Each structure stands twice: as C-alpha cells, then as structure tokens.
Here is the input.
Amino acid sequence: MPPLLNPRLSLSLKPFFLFSQSSFAPRKFQIPRQFVSVKSRTFSSLASEQSSDNGGSSVGGGRSGALSPSLVTDEVQRIDVNPPKGTRDFPPEDMRLRNWLFHHFREVSRLFGFEEVDYPVLESEALFIRKAGEEIRDQLYCFEDRGNRRVALRPELTPSLARLVIQKGKSLSPPLKWFAIGQCWRYERMTRGRRREHYQWNMDILGVPEVTAEAELMASIVAFFKNWNHGIRCWF
Amino acid sequence: MPPLLSPRLSSSLKPLLLLSQSSLAPRKFQIPRQLVSVKRRAFSSLASEQSSDNGGRSGGRSGALSPSPVAEEVQRIDVNPPKGTRDFPPEDMRLRNWLFFHFREVSRLFGFEEVDYPVLESEALFIRKAGEEIRDQLYCFEDRGNRRVALRPELTPSLARLVIQKGKSLSFPLKWFAIGQCWRYERMTRGRRREHYQWNMDVLGVPEVTAEAELIASIVAFFKRIGITESDVGFKVSSRKVLQEVLRCYSVPENLFGKVCIIIDKIEKIPIDEIKRELNATGLSEEATEGLLQVLSIKSLTKLEEILGGAGEAIADLKQLFSLAEKFGYSEWIQFDASVVRGLAYYTGIVFEGFDREGKLRAICGGGRYDRLLSTFGGDDVPACGFGFGDAVIVELLKEKGLVPELSLEVENIVCALDHDLQAVAATVATKLREKGQSVDLVLESKPLKWVFKRAARTNAQRLILVGNTEWQRGMVVVKVLSSGEQYEIKLDELE
Here is the structure.
C-alpha cells in the first residue's frame, strides 16, 4: 500500500506522477529505469521535509504569515495564507452570514419597488476627485494601471450611479429607484488595524425633489432593522 | 446648522446650505441676505447647464460632457465605465441575477457551500513560470504601499490559499463554490473584456475520478435548467496523464511538463508550425514533438489505449469517467479528445471543457484535476478538482439559441395618493402591504392619474391602489386589479 500523502489529513491518494512540484508517494506501475533516481530524490526530500518542516504540518491551526518552501523545485514559493491586509476571506460560515445579510438588503429593496444595478469596482480616478478635503479622498485606493491611466477602486457607489444615469440619458423614466450592493475600498495605513474594504448597500431615488423621497428611504432602513422576514429560506 | 460635507444626489437632508458644488434645485426656505448672491449663482448655473448640457442629460453615450460655466468643482468625466468593464443597468442586472441564481441553485442541489475571497490578492499568488496566457495578462499594479498586488485572474489560487490557512479546522471532502469577478489586462485593440464573473465549483479531498464525474454532472444539470441540451453543447475530455506518458516515452524531463501543456493549449489558436517551433524551443526533440502531436489528434479512447497500452493511469481514469457518465446518464454529453489540455499549468489529471457544437463560440467552461497545487504554495497537497464557468460565453450561447429569458421589472402594487394631503395615508398603505411581504412602488409626488397608469404598465404592477378624499372619508381605499380592470373599495385594515 502506498504511503499516505498527508498523514495529518488522513487521505490516501492514488499514486501520482512526479511533477514539476514535489511529490510524496511512489507510483503503482513499473517505473522505467531512467526515472529511478528521481524517485529516490522524492523519498529523500520527503524525509528531510518531515524533519525540517515539522512533518509538513506547517499548516497550523492559526494564521501564519508565510510558509517555508518545500525542499524540492523552483516552482514552490513562499506565499502568505492570509488575504491582503485589510481584506477578508469568506469561508462557508462567514459566507452564510453575508448571504443572509444581503438577502435582507435585497428583500427590503424589492418590497420598496427598487431595481438592482451594479457598476465596475474599478473606476477612473477622476470620478472621485472632489476638492472638498473629504476623508474619502485622502484614502482613495488609487493607482496607475498597466496603461498608465489613473484608476481607483471605488470608495463609494454614488458617483458611478451618477455616471450611469448621465450615460443612459433620455432612455430613463424618472423617478428612478435603484439599489446596489457593492464592495467599496479605501487605502489607510494599517497601523490602525482597520478594514480596507467593505460591502455597502445603497438605495437611491432620482427624480423626486420632494422630501417624500428621504422619508421613503428612511422607511426602508427601518423596515430592514425590523427584519421583516417572510419565510423565504433560500439565502443558501 | 453645519453644512453638508458630501452632497449625495438624492439626499437633501435639510435645506441645502452653501456648498462648494453647484446646486441644481432652488431652496425652499428664506435665504439669508448674505447668501443671495450665491443663490443667484446657483440658479444661473442651473440655467446655463440646461442650455449647454442638454438639461444635464445627454441622450446617449457621449465620451465626455462639457463643463458647466460655474465652479471649479465640475469636471469632464467619461460617462462610460473603464475600458473593458461593464455597467449593469436594471435590465442587464436582471439577467445577471437570473444566471447567478441558477449557478447557486445547482451548487445547492449538489451540496456545495458558497465561499468568497478578495478580488485583490498578492501578485505572488499568480506567478507561475509556465508561460501561461493568464500570467501575461495579469492585472497587476503597485499599491500605495508599493506592494505588488493584482486583481485576480482566476479563483483557484485563492481557494488554495484559504484551504491552507484553515488547515486542520477543515473536514474533507470540501465541496465549495464561488461566483466572483476575475480580471485581466489586455490591450484593448482587440475589443475584449477586461473583467468577467466566473462560477467555480471545487471538490477537495477526493482523489477518485468520481469527483470529476460529479462536477461534470453539475454543469450538465445547469445547462438543462436553462434549456440547453446535448445537441447544443458537449464536453471534450482528456487527461494530462496522457501527455505525461507520451513525454516520458520520449524522456522529456518532468519539469518541462507545465510549459509543454501551455504550448499545446494554443493548438487551435496559432499555426501548427509555430506550435512545433515553441515545443522545440522548450527542449523537445523533433521526434518527441511529432509523437506528441500525433497522440493529440486521437479522438477515440480505444485508439489511445492501442498507442499507450492499457497499464497507465490515463486510460484507467478516462475509462472510469466514461463509465460513470453512463451511470449518471450523461454519456451523450461527453467525448474523448486528446487535444484538450486547458491553459493552466497546474492540472495533473482529467481535464475537460464545454464547447458549443456549432463551433461559433469560445469554450463555455473548463476544468480538471489539480492535485499538486497546494504544495506549490508551501502547503500540504490535497487532491483537488474543479471548474470555472464564465458569464459571457453562456449569454452569447443563449442568444444564439433564442433562450435568453424575458425578465422584466415586476412590482405587485403601485400606491398613489390622489390628493396631496393624503400622502401620509398612502405611505401607511404601502407600509401595511410591505409588512405582508408585498412589493410596493409608492408614488412620491403629485402626479396625474394618466402618469400613474403609465408607470404601472412599465413596472408590470398587478394592482393599483388609490387613496382619494372621497373614499378616505369613509376609511376606504380603491383597489384596481390591472390585469382584469376589476375595481373595488376596501377598508384599510382589510387590505391584504
């Protein structure tokens, strides 16, 4: 029986080929003569990895900044298992919560007769340049793309909405009741331990000068807080 | 009262105070003397905007708008999204939501859990030295802290990273799915997209070909759900082990494997002589190149077995897959094709791609086994396989087949006050209905009934509810069922 690839995880794999990356298990079939030396290299690298890399169990229970490279090959690199500073991964349990939240955002939007829209997370930097000294501008996550254009990961959704509304021009029939759920970004020095991204639910009414629009918007947030749940259990 | 810092388009929270931007609506209240000149400026800027900017709304997509004469705060902006990216106005968003709903529903039916990762990752996650197209077109840049980062071109490396991170806390097998936006940087002369959404399903911890069979079954289920059949599309299936065995026969070193696969993947895209040249340049002998190309043209598993012999894993895996496909009932959907290698360096076993039988479109989806990826990141290897399915080609296919669904906005109720002082009552009606789970488009201004009917038609409203003085004096509202024209009065607390 071939040795287990990864004794910790208790997986017994079918033997596999030596690839450009390190391999741990021998092959089942007859190995052509010329590869025998390669096979020995495999076993010896396994042995030394077990002694130096803590049995390959560098996959610790917590978050380590980087992993030591395995001994074989040029193809293994040191990578950080954490998402970039200030960003989040959503493993299943976190994703369930996020889906539940977004489901309620969408449900309230639906109840108020709003239509969903979306725009690119990347926009021209110009869309966000306002000279009013806002914090949002100081923390703009901007950069130059490969074509030397100044672009930014959006800090908010409203300028994109404005851009799209202007673009669509006369084809739109006001009032517009549009909503979006989109990721927004900022660049802040990480010494403060703050997030660099978050998702934001936006609801906008365009074409109504009356305060009834603001009242409607506030009513929608109240409705969200009251968590009107109509038994729809399909938030996955 | 403090001035607003950031005027949002629709939020006139309290009367607008002087701001650094031009305001478009006149103020309702009495303007203090010292601001009168500012107000005039505001009005005059409104007037000139209306004449020069076509009322502030240009009819179609114009590249830029002419700046209004007032204020340094107005700038020329491009109304189009950045090159290669898309906006999703309501109609496009409905189609996207429909598609994603089916992605999620199939994932749910197959018992997969949803995950997500940042769209921005360290560039290091995508650096593989195999010459893949995905690497050439990486949308990378330096962030404000001079770190090399990239907008992800695919989701699999992030999955690998998260799995390594979670380590012992995970219980295998993992069946995870994600729907995420992926990016590439390509010269726009080709008019191609720079972003797309991709549905990914991955099975981790299962070394058997049953995992690949399950994944293909899920894509078949998805196609069937949206009306696509085996006469429209198919899957070409092969295994990287085929190439491995051939290369071994010609004593080609294993570390060239990834590069060879990437070159082979270009077979339909560049001339065969160019392929041969690139293979030779990588270090393959003429003999090896010829032998390889011959094997790649094989379209029958039996013929392949004749050439390679029955002992290898390539044949065994493929035979098992075809046998499982038969049991799952989707034999008609898959076929062996030795030329399929796919363009990612990390595949180690079965590879497959979905194709349009009329041959008009690019690959609809693609995937395979990648048992060796985690160790390239310094983690412990876990057998893994998965696929990616983009949102662009499938829509083109639906259009070709006339299967794009007709999705329109639909509200259940449109509620309108016939008299201005009944607006609050109308709001109460709306709240009552919404509490019961019904969608309501509440008319927020005094509008003529004709306008309301037009809007009801546009939003496919089922019912129109009118609050008028006459009826309200008796505590009633008027309900009109728009499909039948039926109309009746009802007490507010009996309304449902």
Summary: Residues 427 and 442 of chain B are 7 Å apart (CA to CA).
